[in-house]
Amino acid sequence: MFQSSFIERHLRLLFPLPALIFIALLMIFPILYTLFLSFTNWNLTSGAPLSFVGLRSYARVLTESRFLDAIWRTFYFTSVAVVAETFLGVAAALVLNRAFVGKSVAKLLLLLPLVATPVAVGIVFNLFYDPTIGLANFMLKTFGLPQGLWISSANSVLPSLIIVDVWQWTPMITLIVLAGLAGLSDEPVEAARVDGASEWQILRHVTIPMVMPVILTAMILRLIDALKTFDIIFAMTGGGPGYASETLNILGFKYSFEYFRIGQASVILVALFLIVFLCSLGIMKLRASSEI
Amino acid sequence: MKNNKLLANALFYLLVLIMALVVIFPFLWMLSSSFKTQVDIISWPPKLWFEPTLQNYARVFEEQDFLQYFINSTIVGGLAVVFSLLLGLPAAYTISRYTQKKLAIFILLARLMPGISFLMPWYIIFSRLNLMDSYVALVLSHMLIALPIVVWIMASYFNSIPCEMEESAMVDGATRQYAFLKIILPLSGPGIITATTLSFIFSWNNFMFSQVLSMEKTKTLPIAVYNFVSYAEVDWGGVMAAAVAIMAPAIVLTMIFQKYVVKGLTMGAVKG
Questions:
Q1: Which of residues 108-127 of A touch B (CB under 8 A)?
Q2: H-helix or E-strand containing B247?
């Protein structure tokens, strides 16, 4: 009896405690450990014991063009992909936002890319992009267009990868915006229609502003995930050709698990962590202030 | 006037058809390639009509230990989800009932932060503990995928259950934890289905954690598919069959629980 009343009194602490301990051990502690390692020059292949080098790993990595290029690529990939996904996703949601025969089938189809294993998606697109036997070039040829090298050329590899990301994740935005549209009341639209507004005016001045918070949230979720894109890039190009598709996540992975330069890898991971963390923080602040 | 409406309708269905084709096309192509012989795959122009063969599937399942990888993926995903429910359900309950916003954000961070910033230290720590290539390491890492999903979905599900449900039981002398177990949880079936389906699919699809932490013994399907490509670069038919095999379970689950999956993927965003 004493025990159960003790549990009840401290329920708000005891119930979440196991989850908290778990996250602390498996996320917070490792992140701090990474931070610690970023001040060392530890290298698993050299066998030398780890020694503190202060900010020397930072100085080395932050001035390396390979690192700076990776940062630029990460932002390029993320911004182009997210903007394209938002436009296409919102447009698709506006088209689908009415009752029609086959709507439930359409919604099921939208789910499929979201649950498809990214590594396998990447491999399927590899065959699609193959310059000699792939369908991508066959389609270009059919329409009389010049054929491309897709992921085999440094110039076209990032756009080609972005297309895969857009194919896979645009439906996410569509589904979220569709759910947002379904939750809107009809009254403002009806009122505008009574006042003689055209369909385009209604869309632009009534529907889109009302669903804007949902669009922003969907965009934010995509943005945070796009910054961390790993599977399709790793499976399709491994960061190549050369370093042409090496984003921060790929670079960090290579430094960690191919070169085993733990000290420098930690600097890259800290940088990636900070970028994602600051983006998330800024976004949460933004949302909190707009959500009164 | 009537003609206009007909035209608008035709245009609308044309648009929907185009969208559907864009979405489904890679799946259809993967599926058809998986039934093609190597000769048919590399023939130019690509063949639409061909003699279907099952040899790709036979090769994948016979030459590779795909069944074992399938079992590994199921064990890792299943255990990660079960343990995440055990840790996550009580946490989600107090987040909902005591509006513990900071706690919610803390757990959500695991969903937002880049996995590689914990993966590298895990690699070092699990190596030291001799836990590389063990189910323990894989399940723990996949729990970090599943737990935030469980907590996020269940906290908003508990929000939709009125507090009177357990309060009336507590007036009758039951403790809150008893009310949680006997009244709230039995009402939470749909939420638990949503959380389970989604977190299992995300664990099933995970590549990075398993790529580093698993080796021959605990290898999961995404790694097997990836390795299959690296050593059988030209065997496109086998690769496509492997891709079909890995995607099929997630797609079947999605079809069965379609309503729940949509809800889980969109709920946080729409509710704010």
A1: 108-121, 123-127
A2: helix B236-256
